[in-house]
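Translate structure to sequence.
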């Protein structure tokens, strides 16, 4: 009997219509277009309207996925929502998404691992498929980062944007799908990238609000140094463990946080820029949304059997890589 693997069989995505350019940010904080683009690779990012939430973007992405696959929301058995900007503290945003979709046969939960969340979710969802109990599992990655950004802090507000993507996992016995993963976490990194207040350690008060502690806080140089090393090394490590040479890799899908980090990862893997998907220039860092949005944007360029390396790094710290064989032609 062939081994059952979890294969991606459909992809959906959504980014808001509103565009925030580098030129727009020049009017808001002390920065400029050339500085932002040269250091991050970002030219613009998308911003979700007030009154809308992460679940609204997720529903758009999942509905597109369902239409492509020719199924409906009642076919979903499990939905994992990877986010750090859930609609509410509770209930889980996954529950809200399922309600808005009409996915009444599904159960679900949220997974929070900062920018690595989608990769963690993909690994988690694949195990449910491999167990044999579940046939259709949806993994959503999305964030409304504009909701937790301080637009007076030029070190963070230039980096992030809003967006969501989703993939459908189904069983595959052709050797396609998730083949291997290496995932890491190091909680000591939390002091360098986190949200200071709003959790049980430091609940919201008038003082925390006045001190602007409910926004993303980042020590950029420390985070960059750790990310550029570890994202590159874990991507090389998964190649080495599976006997993959640079010529065996068709595409790298790296977390879209900083072009220099992506370039360093590709260099460590020994692959050229023609094998690297990139949309950071249009969306910025959408946190949990970056990897599924890459799949969404470049779906037509990937062919059945292509070898992909997925790589990510996030606050906490969290990081990892997945070796995946693409399962369909679009």
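Result:
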């Amino acid at each position: 009997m062939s081994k059952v693997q979890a294969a991606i069989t459909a992809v959906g995505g959504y980014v808001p219509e509103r565009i925030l350019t580098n030129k727009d940010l020049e009017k808001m904080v002390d920065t400029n277009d050339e500085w932002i683009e040269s250091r991050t690779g970002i030219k613009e990012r998308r911003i979700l309207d007030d009154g809308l939430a992460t679940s609204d973007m997720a529903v758009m992405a999942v509905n597109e996925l369902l239409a492509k696959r020719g199924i409906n929301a009642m076919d979903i058995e499990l939905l994992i929502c990877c986010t750090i900007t859930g609609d509410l503290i509770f209930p889980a945003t996954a529950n809200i998404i399922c309600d808005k979709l009409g996915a009444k046969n599904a159960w679900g939960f949220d997974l929070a691992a900062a920018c690595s969340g989608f990769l963690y979710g993909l690994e988690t969802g694949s195990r449910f498929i491999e167990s044999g109990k579940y046939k259709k599992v949806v993994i959503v990655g999305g964030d409304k980062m504009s909701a937790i950004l301080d637009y007076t802090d030029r070190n963070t507000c230039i980096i992030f944007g809003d967006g969501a993507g989703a993939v459908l996992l189904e069983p595959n016995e052709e050797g396609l799908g998730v083949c291997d993963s290496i995932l890491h976490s190091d909680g000591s990194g939390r002091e360098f990238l986190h949200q200071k207040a709003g959790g049980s350690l430091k609940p919201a008060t008038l003082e925390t609000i006045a001190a602007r502690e409910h926004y993303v806080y980042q020590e950029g140089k420390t985070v960059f140094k750790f990310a550029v090393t570890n994202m590159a090394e874990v991507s090389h490590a998964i190649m080495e463990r599976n006997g993959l040479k640079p010529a065996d890799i068709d595409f790298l899908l790296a977390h879209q946080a900083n072009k220099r980090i992506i370039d360093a990862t590709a260099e460590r893997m020994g692959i050229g820029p023609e094998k690297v998907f990139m949309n950071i220039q249009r969306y910025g860092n959408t946190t949990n949304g970056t990897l599924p949005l890459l799949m969404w944007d470049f779906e037509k360029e990937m062919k059945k059997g292509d070898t992909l390396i997925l790589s990510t790094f996030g606050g906490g710290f969290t990081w990892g890589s997945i070796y995946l064989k693409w399962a369909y032609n679009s």
